[in-house]
Amino acid sequence: MKINELKDKVFLHQSARAGLMLVIVAVVTLEATALIQFYFSQKGIKAEASMRAESQLEATRLKIMNVIDQAESAVRNSEWIAQWCLDYPDSMVAVTRRIVRDNPVIVGSTLALVPGYNPARPLYAPFSYQIPGEKEIHYRQLATQEYDYPSQEWFVKPLELQAGYWSEPYVDEGGADLLMTTYSLPVRDKNGRLAAVLTADVSLDWLTDLVGNVEVYPTAFSMMISRSGQIMVCPVESLVMRKTVQETLLDLNASDTSKLGSINRSMMSGESGNVTLKYQKSTSYIFYAPVERTGWSMSIVIPDEEIFGGIRRIGLIVKLLQLLGVLMLILILRSSIKSQLKYRELSERKEKMESELKIGRGIQMSMLPKIFPPFPERKDIDMFASIVPAKEVGGDLYDFYIRENKLFFCIGDVSGKGVPASLVMAVTRSLFRTVSAHEKSPQRIVTAMNESMADMNESNMFVTFFTAVLDLGNGHMRYCNCGHNAPYVISSEGVSALDVMANLPLGVMPGMSFQEQETDLRCGDGLFLFTDGLTEAENSDHELFGENRLLGQLHPGMVSQEQLRIVSEAIGSYVGTAPQSDDLTMLYVRYLNETVPDNSERHLILHNDIQQIPQLADFVETIAEEARLDQSLAMSLNLALEEAVTNVIMYAYPEGSDGLVDVEAVIRKDSLEFIVSDSGQPFDPTRAPEVDVTLGVEERAIGGLGIYLVRNIMDEVRYERTEGKNVFSMIKFIG
Amino acid sequence: MEVKIFQEEGAMSAQLIGRLDTPAAMEVTREVQPLIDNADRTIILDCSQMDYISSSGLRIFLTIRKAASAKGGKVVLRGMKEDIRKVFMMTGFLNLFEVEKAQ
Predict the structure, then answer these.
(1) How far is Cα A629 from Cα A619, in angstroms, rounded to an integer?
(2) Phi and psi for A642 in degrees, rounded to 5?
(3) Which of A15, A119, A470, B68 could bond A477 through an S-S bridge, CB–CB 3.0 to 4.6 Å?
(4) Are A575 and A604 within one domain?
(5) A282 within a domain of the structure (yes/no)
(6) How many structural domains is chain A composed of?
(7) Cα-atom radius of gyration of chain A, to the nearest Å?
(8) Residue A713: its chain B contacts at CB < 8 A?
C-alpha cells in the first residue's frame, strides 16, 4: 500500500508538472497572439480615425468655403455697380438692398464712402439688413454720432490692404446676438481712387451648427478659432466669442499648457496637422486644418478612449476569455489526472483480481491428483490425467484413488464457468472423496453426492459426472454415469463408447435415483474419460474438434501418458491460435492385471449370537461383488448362509454358552463355496426331516424350513464332524 | 426391520419395511401380535418394501396364516418383490396365501 501511495504521488507530481508546462505554454501563446493582434488593430484603428477626422475637416472646410465663396462673389459682382453709384449716392442703398435680397447667406450689406471723397456727404454708409426670420429688408444709415464707421476694422483693413478682407468674427450687437463676419471689398472710382468699401455681413450661426455637429465619435468635439485666437465654435458656450484661446489657457492655470499653446500658434498661423496630446492623464488626438481666406482654423479633438475604447474593451473580453480558457484547461487537466489516477487504480484492482483468480485456479488445480504415474509400485494399472484449464477458472474435475484394492475414479464438468463453477467443482471433488470413503457402489456414491449437492444448490448449477469403481483384482468395474459424455473403451478389438444409461446430472434435484451399470475390463483394456472441452474445442472458424477426430487419435495398447499427449497435440494443432474457451480434461485408465486369481477366500468369524446375523449380509455382498454375482443370487446366498449360521447358533451351542461360528467363503471361477464350522456339540442339519411344501396351512410345521431353503438354493450341501468341529459346507455353481 | 400397522375398513394392514432376517423376526413376533388377535378379519401384509426374508420370517407369516385359518379370517400379500416371491414360491408358501394382483 505504501509503495502504491508513493507511486501515485510520483505520478501525480509528474502529471502536475506536465500540466503546469502546458498551461504556461498556452498562456504565453494566447498572450502573444493577443498582443500582436492588439498592436495591428490599434494601428489600423488609429489610421482609420485620422482618416475620418481629416475627411471631416475637409468636408467642413468645403462647406464653409462654399458660403464664403457665395458671399465674396456677391460682393465682387456688385463692385461695378457700386463704382457707378459713387456719383449718385442716393442710389447706393439700392445696391446694398439688392445684395441682401439676392443672397440668402448675406444678412446685411453696406456701401460706405471714404470720408471726404464726396464733399457733399463726408460720411455716408447706407446699410441694408434683414432681421433673421423676416423677409423684409430694413435700411439704416451707419454714419451716426455713436458709430464711427471709418475707424471700424471692416472699413480700415480693406483700404489698408487694398484687397477684399474677411473681418474677425464678431457678435452683432444690433441684432439678436448673432455671430457674424463681414467681407469688405475696397471700391475705386473711375479714376482709380479708393472711394468706398462694399461689405456683406454673413451670419455664422450655421457655422456653429456645422462645426459643432461634426460627429466623428460621440465624445469627440470640434473647435474653430479665428486668426487672432478668438474661439468661434467650441462645446463650452461660455467661451464662444468671449475669450481667445490664449486667455483660456491662462485661465486654466494649469502647469503644462505649452503643448496646447504650440498647437494654438500652429493653428493661428494657418497650418494643418495632427497631434497626440497628453493632458491631465488623458490622451487625445487633435486634428486641425485652416479655412483659407478667412484665417480661421478648425480642429477636431478625439479622446484616446474614444478611438481605442472599443478595441480595449475587446482586449479586455479577450483577456477574460483567455483566463476562462486557462481555467478550463486547468480544470480539464485536473480531471484528466484524476481520471488517470482512477484508471490506474482500476487496472491495479483488475490486476489484483486476476492474480487472485490465478491463485484460485492454482488452488483448484492442486485439489486434483497430479503426480504421475500415480501408482508407480503397481503393475496392474497404468493411468494418466491431464487438465488444461481455460483462461477463466473452469469447473472440470477428475479424481482417483485406491482403496481395498479398488480403483475409485471420476470425471466431472460443472455447468457454467468462472468462480461459481470452480467453487462447485471444489465441493464436488470433496464430496466424492467423503462419500466414496464409505461406499463401494457408484450408484450409492452418486446418490449421496446428489442429495448433498441438490440440497445446497441455490444457484441451480449442476455437474455432469461419471464415476466408476474398478476391482483391480479381477477387472470388474461398476460405474454410474450422470449426464456425462460416455467414456471410450479402448481394447484390442478397437475403440467403442461405453454403454451408459441416461441418468440426470448431479445437483439437479434431490431424491433422484441413479442406475448403476457394470462391465469387465480385460488385461490391456483402457477407459478414456474426457469432458466436452475436448470435443467442443473450436478452431478459428468456429468448427468443433468433434468425436470423430477424437476417436481417430485413440490407439489400443498405447501407454496412457503417450495417449494423452497425442490427443493434446491433435487438439492443439486443430485449434491453432483460437482462444481456448473451456477446460480440456482427460483421464485414461488402463487395466493391466494379467493374473486374475483362480480362487480367493474370505473369512468371517461370528459369536453364537443371533444379533450377529446381519453381518452376513455385508459379507455376502462383498463376495457377490468379487464374484460378480447378480443381486438376486446374492440374496439367495445370503439366505442360505443365514439359515446355516442360525442353525449353528440355535442348536450347536447350548443356550447361554459362548462359542464362535467360523464362516469361510471360497470364490472359484465357476463356483462359490461356503464353509460354516463351529466347536459346538455335534449337529448335522442335513439329517433334519424333509419339509413337505405341498401341505396345507393346518398341516404345515413351523420348523424345518431353514435346511429346506439351503438345499434348494445351493447345489451341493455336505456335513462333516472333524476334529471336534461341525463343518457344514455348501457349494453353488456360477458362471 | 420396521412394522407399521394400520386399521382399515374391516381389515388390518401391516407394512413390513426392510430386512426380515432371524434377529428381526424375533423382534417382529411381538409387534405382529395385534394381527394375530384380529385374525378373524382380513389381514393385508404389505411386502412392497421388504428387502429380504429368512425362514424365521416365513414362520411369522405362517403363524399369522394359521391364526387366520383358525379364526376365519384371511391373509392377503401385497406388492412382493421378485426375490421375496421366489422364496415364497420355493417353500410352497405362495399357495398358502392370497396374493393381491399388482396394481
Answers:
(1) 13
(2) -60, -45
(3) A470
(4) no
(5) no
(6) 3
(7) 69
(8) 90
| Beta carbons within 8 Å of A514's beta carbon, 6+ residues apart | A443, A446, A447, A450, A480, A482, A503, A504
Q: In chain A, what residues touch B55 (CB-CB under 8 Å)?
A: 643, 646, 705-706, 708-709
Per-residue pLDDT tens for A380-401?
Answer: 899 999 988 876 677 899 999 9
| Domain of residue A89, residue span | 78-203
Which pairs with CB-CB distance under 8 Å and at least 24 residues apart come from A370-378? A372/A561, A373/A561, A374/A400, A375/A402, A378/A402, A378/A472
**Among A98, A109, A97, residue whose Cα is nearest residue A199:** A109
**Structural domain ending residue among the three candidates A591, A607, A639:** A591
The kind and range of the H/E element at B30 are helix B22-31
- Within 8 A of B54 by CB-CB distance, chain A residues are 639, 642-643, 646, 706, 709
The pLDDT tens digits for A305-327 are 888 888 888 888 888 988 898 89
Q: How far is B65 from chain A (nearest CA, A)?
A: 7
Does residue A357 form part of some domain? no
Write down which residue in A169, A203, A237 finishes a domain.
A203
Helices (H), A230-303: 245-252, 258-268
ipTM: 0.93
Tens digit of each residue's pLDDT (9 = 90 or more) over B17-28: 999 999 999 999
A43 in any annotated domain:
no
Kindly state the cell numbers that stand for A159: 483700404
Return the amino acid letter for A234: C
The answer, for A607 touching chain B at a CB cutoff of 8 Å, is no
Partner residues linked to A465 by β-bridges = A412, A482
Residue B71 touches partner A, C-beta closer than 8 Å: no
Residue A603, domain CATH: 3.30.565.10
Low-confidence ranges of chain A (pLDDT < 50): none
Domains of chain B: 2-99 (3.30.750.24)
d(CA A396, CA A412): 6
Is residue A241 one of the residues assigned to a domain?
Answer: no
Kindly state whether residues A634 and A584 are assigned to the same domain.
no
Please answer whether residues A657 and A672 qualify as being in contact, where contact means their C-beta atoms are separated by less than 8 angstroms: no
pTM comes to: 0.44
